[in-house]
Amino acid sequence: MRRTNTGRTAELIVYRQNRSMIYVGGVPVTVDDSTQDDDALAVLMKHPLLVSVSHSFRAISERKFSASDESNMERSTSKAVYVFQREFATVDPSCVDLVGTDEATTCLGIVIRNRRNRMTSVAHMDSPDVVDIGLTQMLSLAVKRETDDVFDVHLVGAFNDASSQSMDRGSKSRKHIKLDGYSFPLCQKIIQTLEKSSIKFHIQTLHVLDHNTRWDSQGNAYPIFHGFLVETSTGSINPASFDKTSRCPDEIVRRIRLTASFEDPSCIGRLLKTYDTLTDQIIISPFSWTRRQISVAFMLRNLSDSEILLSCSTSPSAEGPDFVENQRRQCEFVIEHPDSRKVFPLNQPRVFERIPSGGWRRLQQ
What we know:
Elements: H1 8-14, E1 22-24, E2 27-28, H2 39-45, H3 48-58, E3 63-65, E4 80-82, E5 87-91, E6 98-101, E7 108-114, E8 120-125, H4 131-139, E9 150-159, H5 174-178, H6 183-196, E10 200-209, E11 213-215, E12 221-223, E13 228-231, E14 237-242, H7 251-261, E15 272-273, E16 275-276, E17 281-284, H8 291-301, H9 305-312, H10 323-336, E18 350-354, E19 360-363
Parallel strand pairs: 1-10, 3-14, 4-6, 5-15, 9-10
Antiparallel strand pairs: 1-2, 5-8, 6-13, 7-8, 7-9, 11-12, 13-14, 16-17, 17-18, 18-19
Helix pairs in contact: 1-4, 7-10, 8-10
């Protein structure tokens, strides 16, 4: 099994126990010994309480956020932290009121909240490869060695992207679904890892796969929700979406960092850390983009919208309306700033501090 140098927390995550450490409604979830481990996800997807919660979640109106004065979307003056794809943030409720993410299609957002101290960790996971270390990173500031804390878990996103357009969903075997799409392997890996932990995880929301999928008359699948927002004081979670003015600070640089991380060996298997829990600051460590990435930016700039979707998305038909625009803005930034050292002068991080209104201000180096 994978081991990390984060001490006791890593051990809590990866050591298999004799019984499941996943609870629903205060009761441990058990799986028939004659079946395989990965059936835990199937059991949870059919659990009456989680099905009921998912139906209720689906009925909630999505909150739409913007920081623009010209927008008709909701404006928040609360202290918030936004999490981009493959990022995570662990927040203290005494410093942060809201934490959220969106833009998930085959990705999903996961919330892990300590019931005792209300420390809340949110991640936007996009691959099974980041689950083992990623969950350890999320819990590193929330688990205390001397306590037997209980954690609430919410999972939202990862619609059913299995290629079932021409098939009757009711007749599809679960074995076929396992082998198809991006969403199922990610959900499966998360549940397996939680189940093997020695920490008590109480699944509160499992709005993924079929629960987060709508089908049109031609059998095409789309996500119902792409994101959510958590109120740290209460732990309540609501569907939410954000525009580019509220996905801040340093939206474009953080998007480019995701792309650059795929070629950075130090990022393999890890979530990207942006938010500093202790100082309530956004800190973007220096990174660079390669000549290949610059060449890709020039290539993408000349593609049509449909070609960008096919080239850059795991679910081209399910992306949000600003997906292509965001890809083009990243390309323009890289082309206009071919030397990443000028974005990080003296190889120093880009640091943003909280301002009284709840927003962010960059600290000059």
